[in-house]
Amino acid sequence: MKAIGFKKHLPIEEEASLEMFDISKSEPKGRDLLVRVQAVSVNPVDTKIRGGSEGTEEAEPQILGFDAAGVVESVGGEASLFQPGDEVYYAGSNQRSGSNQQYHLVDERVVGRRPAQLSMAESAAMPLTAITAYEALFDRIGIVPERNRGASVLVLNGAGGVGSIAIQLAKWAGLNVVATASREETTAWCEQMGADKVINHHQPLFKQLQDAGYDGVDYILCFTDTAQHWSGMAECIRPQGTICSIVETEEPLPLTDLQAKSAAFMWEFMFTRPMYQTEDMIRQHVILDELADLFDQATIKPTLTETLTPLNAEQMKEAHRRVESGKTIGKIVLEHWQ
């Protein structure tokens, strides 16, 4: 079967940065599903893995990809959540071969039923970013929809893949949402997603909040450079507020900046549950099914902005180029294997 990956970590401009490989199709065991992949999307983590450790060679082809939508082909002996023929979507695990292959093994506990009202491409755009945003808001910060109605949240990089869905989920939960963007088109996108106010993350954050009538915010979701925005976030967070980030830092963060406010800081990493096989790993199945309901009810909308076809190495390179440019809005999806 066909798969897209690499054997050497290279810049995307290099011919061998991404290649088509012919690999064997595996049979599912245990709680695994074998999914016939019909659409995949590209996330920044894909480009980081491909370009990291530049020049290093791998013994076997490394197949990238996390987000996928497709049809269950067969199931392992212990699988009980899905049957052959079911349409599904998921973000998978960073500990296993990726979804950029025609048939993909994935643990059913991190798989959800595909939203019936979305296309296969729209569905493939959503799992990684939607799980990340959902976990950050509701599992990490602990927001309870309706109970926290009226509280404020600052979403840094609101036009990115995670920010786009986080704005919508925060509005669904009843929060007042301030998002950041730096261009006219990204500002318009954040407003389209439901942001109550949009400010520029290249300018002092707290001053802009004050000008907009805010004395600070209760929560902050950081979906961009954590270290770069640390002092601004520490200034903007209200006493006893919470900051949650998904972007790693090279140097330790000065957490004492939050001490006087008794503010909290935490990380969100959507691969934690499958990576450590946590007891609540099935939580991601539950989250994806709840998100499917929200999509089907049109409470939230998909953030797909571009679909590339066919699904081959050259189009995957183009998707990586666009993601690496840092100028993409929403999500890029590839479909139709060639």
From TrEMBL:
It comes from the Bacteria. InterPro entries: ADH-like_N, ADH_Zn_typ-1, ER, GroES-like_sf, NAD(P)-bd_dom_sf, Zinc-ADH_QOR/CCCR. Keywords: Metal-binding, NADP, Oxidoreductase, Zinc. The keyword Transferase does not apply. CDD domains: AL_MDR. One of its GO terms (molecular function) is zinc ion binding. The keyword NADP applies. Residues 15-334 form the Enoyl reductase (ER) domain. Belongs to the zinc-containing alcohol dehydrogenase family. Quinone oxidoreductase subfamily. This is Zinc-type alcohol dehydrogenase-like protein. It comes from Marinococcus luteus. The lineage of its organism: Bacteria, Bacillati, Bacillota, Bacilli, Bacillales.
